[in-house]
Amino acid sequence: MTNVAMQAPPIEPAAPGSRPNLDKGFNPISLILFVGLLAGGFLYVIDSVYADVNSSGTKITTLLPFLLLSVALLIALGFEFVNGFHDTANAVATVIYTHSLPAELAVVWSGIFNFLGVLTSTGAVAFGIVSLLPVELILQVGSSAGFAMVFALLIAAIIWNLGTWWLGLPASSSHTLIGSIIGVGIANALAHGMDGTSGVDWSKATEIGYALLLSPLFGFCAAGLVLLSLKVLIRNPALYAAPKGKEPPPWWIRGILILTCTGVSFAHGSNDGQKGMGLIMLILIGTVPTAYALNRTPAPSQMESFQAASAAAVVVIEKQATGHNALGNPRPAVTSFISQRKMNEGTYVSLAALVKEIAAQVDRYGSVDKIPADAVRNTRNDMYLASEALRFLMKDKENSLAKPEVEVLNTYKKELDMATRFIPIWVKVAVAIALGLGTMIGWKRIVVTVGEKIGKSHLTYAQGASAELVAAGTIAAADIYGLPVSTTHVLSSGVAGTMAANGSGLQWATVRNLLMAWVLTLPCAIALSASLYMIFLEIF
Predict the structure, then answer these.
(1) Mean pLDDT, to the nearest integer, of 455-469?
(2) Which one, of 404, 387, 293, lies nearest residue 334 by Cα?
(3) What ranges in 56-88 are assigned the alpha helix state H?
(4) How many angstroms separate the CA atoms of 176 and 87, rounded?
(5) Closest by alpha carbon to 464, among 418, 438, 498?
(6) Euclidean distance between CA atoms 63 and 494, whole angstroms
């Protein structure tokens, strides 16, 4: 009985006219709305930056930082735009190829939920990406090397994404951006005469690498298991049929497919949109630090909780530093620990001195938002150093911290992160618009690959729902843990998994190309960004 239930229904070839109409253009009203959204978003960004700079009390003496800011923001939002039509196309492939939604409506629907996903995102992924960058570049992001870093990694990511999109390959924007960041880190280390491996936080890179490596394998297996489970639990043959002609599926199947498409789009926005946010915040900190280096909208109770957490952290750290005294500036020793991840007798004592200095700075002015413009960058750098040092300290196996002491340090680290790791709402809106509009523009090439070139038979309703359900769940889980995953890899591998589970067969030429893109993305992005970084260092 079980064997009968687990067998796939006979594969029916799709009717000759079942291919969706992908060539229907958008009507003039859509074009007007598109241009209107671009113009509105542009004006909103300009107004928001002006308001933030004005409220910080910054005196504008030159327009150069704002010109650099404009160029950098355009490139960063350009990355998100390309990300939209490169990655999100995967989300709409199943509803388009099952005729659940017309192509033009599907991409608009997906764009809207990408927009909402970005707006409701937490920022955890954004700063997880940023923490991969070399600490010395983050601390000097407004320098020529800082701008070279930002421009190199973003332009490298855009070039690779556009190239794979042109070939119709569902390559990963996440993979591309991680590779670009690693390339910059390696090039920066070599430029300063250091070992290339010292320029990257390899523990964090490994953690992210596992997420990117395992998520496609999970997508393949889980989507296949979901499909087989559906066959056991739901015996309705209509769910396992390929579309007949251009008729939409029964309403309940259609509802499931639209729901899963919505989930993938929302999850993609909440995860992928954050990658651009973190880089935009670096750009803002580098160009207008007085307005964006520190969170100037703290909660009323934050001052008291910050000082209490600082005092408790100092007690814990000084206990570990017993017998040693801080001499001079503690920052070089803390920076060295972050870069090399090697503890010595000066680590704890220097960190304790730095924590005391941060508390004194905040206490002197009454709260974080009252720190004057000329001191903001230094305070922010001190807070970032302390936060990163605590992160590595609590991971270090050589530390002798008890569990209650770790909790004290974690509480203090959260207070530091609240002051330095924030994302203004206008940044979310700008990224959401770029990602959503990108979804509506260049979707066709990737949609054709996912819908027609992975399996040997037409995508069935159950296959589309299974792949998207797994993709939405995987991305949402990664978002909770602050890890970037690839919508492209999870969904395309999910479609392949359902084809294999259904006995539909795979088009191995496409699978081979997908695997090649998966393997080549990281080294190519590393080489591109490293080369561009060295070039930009000479230009800036």
Answers:
(1) 80
(2) 387
(3) 64-87
(4) 12
(5) 498
(6) 49
- Are 215 and 490 contacting, i.e. CB atoms less than 8 angstroms apart? yes
Q: What is the pLDDT of residues 490-507, one digit of tens each?
A: 888 888 888 888 887 777
Q: What is the pLDDT of residues 464-498, one digit of tens each?
A: 888 888 888 887 787 777 676 777 778 888 888 88
Can you tell me the distance from the alpha carbon of 269 to that of 273, in angstroms, rounded to the nearest whole number? Answer: 5
Residue 422 sits at φ, ψ, to 5 deg, of: -135, 160
Tell me, what amino acid is at 256? I
Give 301-327 pLDDT, tens digit per residue: 677 888 889 999 988 888 887 766 666
Token pair recorded at residue 192: 């300063």
Question: Which residues is 506 bridged to in the sheet?
Answer: 455
The position carrying tokens 């308001």 is 51
> In 10 A of CB 50, how many CB atoms?
13
Phi, psi of 295 (to 5 degrees): -75, 110
Q: How far apart are alpha carbons 359 and 310 in whole angstroms?
A: 6
Task: Tell me how far CA of residue 66 lies from CA of 23, 44, 132, 400, in angstroms.
Answer: 41, 16, 26, 47
**Is residue 316 within 8 Å of 409, Cβ to Cβ?**
yes
In which element (H, E) is residue 430 found? helix 425-439
CA distance 391 to 261: 37
Measure the CA–CA gap between 199 and 176, rounded to whole angstroms.
18
Q: Which tokens go with 534?
A: 């060295």
pTM of structure: 0.77
Q: Which DSSP category does 99 fall into?
A: T
Per-position DSSP letters for 121-165, written without gaps between them: --SHHHHHHHTTS-HHHHHTTTSHHHHHHHHHHHHHHHHHHHHHH
- Biggest CA–CA distance in the chain, Å, is 82
Q: Which of 469, 513, 439, 512 is nearest to 94 (CA)?
A: 469
pLDDT in tens, 329-360: 888 888 888 877 777 777 888 888 899 999 88
- The tens digit of pLDDT for each residue in 175-204 reads 788 888 888 888 888 887 776 566 666 766
In this prediction, residue 156 carries a pLDDT of 92
User: How buried is residue 509: exposed, middle or buried, by Cβ count under 10 Å (0-12/13-18/19+)?
Assistant: exposed
Cβ neighbours of residue 218 closer than 8 Å, sequence gap 6 or more = 470, 474, 490
Distances (CA, A) of 195 to 146, 183, 205, 414, 536: 20, 13, 17, 32, 21
Helix (H, G, I), strand (E, B) or coil at 330: coil
Per the CB < 8 A criterion, the answer to whether 142 and 388 are in contact is no
